Structures are given as structure tokens and as C-alpha cells.
Amino acid sequence: MVTGLWRDTIPVRLRLFADETHAPVSYSRVCWQTSCAETCITDEGSKTVKDIHSVYGTTRRAFLRATAGAVATLASAGILQACGGASSPAVAPSSGAAAPTASGGMSVPTAAAASVRAPASASTTSQPAPKLTIAYNGFENNITPFTLSLVSIPNAHDLITLVYDTLFWSQNDVEPEPWLAEKAEASADRQVWTVTLRPGITWHDGVPFTADDVKFTFEYYQKFAGSSGRYAHHVGDVPPFDRAEVIDPLTVRFYYRAPAPTFTILPGADLLILPRHVWEKVTEPSKASKDLPIGSGPYKVVEIQPDQLYRFQANDRYFKGRPTVNELVLPIVQDPSAAFASLQTGQVDFVARNVPPELFAQFGRTPNLKMAKGTRFESTQLYFNARKAPLSDARLRKAISLAVDSQALLQTVLLGHGRPGRDGFIHPDSPWALPNGGHEFDGARAAQMLDTAGYTQKDTDGVRKTPTGSRLEFSVLVSSFAPQDLRATQLVAQQVSAIGVKLNVEALDPATLRQRRQAPAGQIPPYDAYVGTLESHGHVDPDGLYYFFHSPGAKGFGATVTGYGNARFDQLSEQAAVTLDLTARKGMLQEMQRILAEETPVIVYFYPDGDYAYRPAAYDGWVSDPGHGIFTKRSFLPGYKRATAALPAVGPATLAPRRAAAE
């Protein structure tokens, strides 16, 4: 029995019930008790210690510790309803606060596609759900483009777009739906774009939204490009923004120094538009973390408890219609085992994570839970430090890649719920992906490549050495809150040991991992490799390869990813960014993927399916939004089609999140 867990004067006792007569010990219930009630997880058929590790990717002790931590978080945030309400806000409210045609101009009309009906009116006949509690996977400060920490990737962008809007939505669609914009018209050379804005929109504080806000936004990101790398790079780098001009209150014109061929996708469907009257007063945006954010999105942030909870209220005046849930409560639960335990017991209604495949059958038998499918274009990969010897040798990196069986990773870790990794990096469903790309698994070729490269000496334990005598032994940094990443990396370590390479897996909390990746300006980071998850932005952005893998320097942000560099790759990426002909541009992007496949700055483990579990009694209006999963603003707006069921189907979702046909 584990006792003595106390938080904010709420006594919480965690109890472990075991059948002491069996070996290994079989745990049938995990319970927690407050002063008002006791709640238990009953495990059908019991789970042995080994089974708990299989399902949750952790030890029994770590499982209990994580579950206890989540219970304490929920209790202190007021989610365990029996013992009182939430704490007062820790952050006070602010006081002031498409594809171009072959030739000629381009116009993106109000209806981006025939299957998108006109926006719903602000009032609807159906009553919104009163409240939805969502276990969220990381704290993102006060949710602004300049203070976002990105610890909750792949969810961070979908969290912030509950508050802020973009001109179009979303970047995952080659013909994004007009959002704040009604249409965008391009000059023949795509260097001038004229955007017509939707009338009648207001910011959360009631101030009207106008073209001045849009012009200010682009100029502000340009001015503070170093303060918001996730968003500002599409203003400060490529496409090369020059200036903006307000034509009238609902029309703004953008001028670029080179062609911006996919403006409506990026930056149009990614850059968060800012209220000028709030941000023009802010001179250090990366430090503006005290006030609640003000946006134009479907939800207002009304409460933040640092590292504990977010609380949102619906924006009843939202131009796309009244949101379908009145209140969203997001307790921060970093550990996935604790998050899904909270879902099973009803303490939360949804977990903003993919369901571990091992839980599919159990959740499918649980009468109060449903499963839904929605792809994120998400990927999990190992990033090499390509500037640190000997991993600066592309032959060594390629040999390690050749020894990795990505199909085995997929089947063992995800039980087949996803796609195996590809050597060209880009998600296979991306419109920019290399056709028929894949992963080459050839252990014999890997060993031969190492021999040819001069790594022929071996230590007494079989680990190869460099020509200077250093062991091919490397440390791989992995988040301790990512059990599937840990399991996959352990399996990779076993696989590559066959060719004489040793990988040591280091599990670190996200903050420490981020710190270990950093280095003083001008120096090479000391790490060997790390594992991370990437959201759709890195796969559907036609300039994504440029940003991630351009040689370190003034262009892109490759120095913070792997430090990889290749002159031909740089030339292609810079040329592709300004190429108008889409066929020619795709050809360049495909050649870039072939270079990555040969030189291997990253090894993609897999592209997980988006499979989610929720409590339909609380809310059953989830939408499958490709590239966003189902935790997306479209899930909380009227008129979009619901997500498809995840069981028993296996494979990528195909349902587009278009508004249902008008009745």
C-alpha cells in the first residue's frame, strides 16, 4: 500500500491491491481516496508487473508514482469534484488587454471547396455541452506565439489555435479553407498578394478586427523574428516578406522580395494573427507571460494555474458559430499512464494523446468510452548530432539506419497502428512526399559500409572503434514521459548492436532534455542523438525540409535540429522555395528527400496513427481534422463531420473535416 500523498490540504491516499499468493504479483486494483470518496481502476483479468510495463511502458513503481502524481494534480486543480473547487487564477486577466494556377493571377474564393458550406450563424439550435475536461500533455505558459514552450508537441499548435486564428485553415490542406480571410488574389509572379478579410470579427475584448491587425502582425513577427521561431520564420526567412499595405479596413496587400507560391498555405494557414492594440505595447514579447492572451479564436483563456491547469470559455460571438462546448478544462498530465488512468475512472473526458495500442481491446470493452481516428501527420524519429564526430560521417549514420528494422519497430511498439519510417523523412501522406519512398533495412550492407569506412577495429565486447580508437558508443536522449519512444529506442539499440554500434538510452524529463540539446552560440552541442516527435507542420510545409535541414547559418534553423549540411541540398531547398511551377517544385523536394535518405541526419521510427479515446456522455462531436487529429478547433465548431470510429479499423484516416452539407 502506498500512502501519504497530500496536495493543497486535500488528503489523497493511493492504494495498491495485490494477490499476494501469485508470482509475479498480480495487481487487480489501483485506488485513490480523498476525504470524500474512493475511486479505483479495476483491471479486468489483472495485469502482472510485466503487463503493466507492456501497457504503460514503465515499471510498477513508476506507474504508481505517475498515477499518484496525476491524481494530486487533478485534486489540486479541482477536477476531483467531491472535495471542492479550483484555485483562483494564477495569471490575471489583461488590463488592456492553395495551389497557384499554371499562369496568371490566383484567387482563393470564400468557399475553398464545394464540400464546405457557408459558415454557420452565431446561434445554433442545439445546446452546447456544458464542460469538457481534457488531460493535456504539457504546460505552454500563457499560450502566446512568443511564450509557447512547445513541450506539448504535437498538440501545441492546436492548443494555441483555440485562442488565435489564421487567415486560412489549415496548412495540411493544399486548398485551405478561408478563415479570417475571405479570399486571396496573387499577381502573376506571386510576389504580391491581396487578401480580403471577413467582416464583423472582433477580438476577445470586443475591439474590431481589421486589416491594421494583419499588417501589424506580419511586421511584428518580422521585427521580433528571434522571439517566435515556430511562427516568425515564415515572415523573417522564406517566403521573404518585404512589406504590407492596408488598402481599406478589410483589405491588406503583401509584397514579397521573391515569389511566395504557396502563400495561402504558409504563412496564410499557419501564422497566428495578433491584435495590434495589445501587442504594439509589448517590447519584449518572449517575456510577456503574465497576462491572459487575447485572440479572435473560438475560446478565451480565463484561468491559468502554472504547470497545473488551463481553463477556457467559449467565445459566443465567434464568426464561425457558437462553440459546441461552453467550457474546456485542461489539467496538465504529462505521464500518459496517469492520463489514461484518469480517463478510465471518469476524472477526465478525453486525453490529448494517441491511445497506446495495448489498451485498444480494453477500451473497446469499456461501455463508457469510445474510440475515434484522425491522423496528425505525426512522426517519431532519432536525430543525430551531425556536427559531432564521428556522427558527422554520413557513412556511419547511413550504416546505423540500414541496421534498423522499422517494420519491427512498428509492429512491436505500435502493434501495427501506423506506418513504418521512411528514409526521406516526409510523411507518406504529405502532398510533397517522395512517391514509393520507404526504408532500406540491410544489416549485411550496413556492416560492409562500416568496414569500408574504416570502422574495422572492435573492442572486446564487439563494439567497433573509429580509426583513432574511439568506441562507436553513443548516448540517445529520450523523454521520460514518452514510453513508446523509450521502448522504440531500446529496440533500435538491440538492432544496431548486431553491427557493432552501441546506443545507450538516457531517459530525461523534457526540460532537462531540451537543456542538454543546447550549446553556447558558435559551439557544437555536446549530445550524440535525441528522439523527438514532430507535428504535421514539418511534413506538410513545402519549405519544411529547408528549415529543418539547411546547413547551419542565417537560413532555416537546422543548427537546432541536427546541424546537418549538404551544399546540393541547400541549393535545391533555396530554389524550391521560390519556384512557381508546382511540378518542378515537387521534383526538387523529392531530390532533397533522396539526399536525406542517403546521408541520414535522422532515422524516422514510425508515423503513428491518430487513435483517440473519449467519454461520449460528456461530448460526442469530435472531428477528424487531417494533420490535427481530433483535438482541433474544428471539433468545437458547428457543422463539421464527426470523426470516424477507430475500432476495428487500422490505417490512416480518410475523412476530410469539411462542413456537412446544408440541410
Task: Describe the 3D structure.
The chain is an alpha+beta fold and 663 residues long. Among the domains are: 5-83, no CATH class; 164-287, Dipeptide-binding Protein, domain 1, CATH 3.90.76; 379-608, Dipeptide-binding Protein, Domain 3 (Dipeptide-binding Protein, domain 3). It is 24% helix and 21% strand. It has a six-stranded mixed beta sheet. A five-stranded antiparallel beta sheet has the order 5-9-10-12-11, covered by helices on one side. Helix 2 (60-76) crosses helix 7 (336-344) and helix 4 (211-223) crosses helix 5 (229-236). The chain is globular. The model is unreliable at 1-64, 81-125 and 647-663 (pLDDT under 50).
Reported CATH architecture of the domain at 379-608: Roll
What is the highest CATH level, the class of the domain at 379-608? Answer: Alpha Beta
What is the CA-based Rg, rounded?
Answer: 25 Å
Counting DSSP H or I runs of 4 or more residues, the number of helices is 17
Strand content: 15-25%
Q: Span between N and C termini?
A: 58 Å
Q: What percentage of residues falls in helices of 4 or more residues?
A: 10-25%
Low-confidence stretches: 1-64, 81-125, 647-663
SS class: alpha+beta
Mean pLDDT: 82
Name of the CATH homologous superfamily of the domain at 379-608: Dipeptide-binding Protein, Domain 3
User: How many beta-strand elements?
Assistant: 25
CATH fold type of the domain at 379-608: Dipeptide-binding Protein, domain 3
Sketch the major β-sheet.
6 strands, mixed
Shape: globular
Sheet with the most strands: spatial strand order:
19-23-18-22-20-21
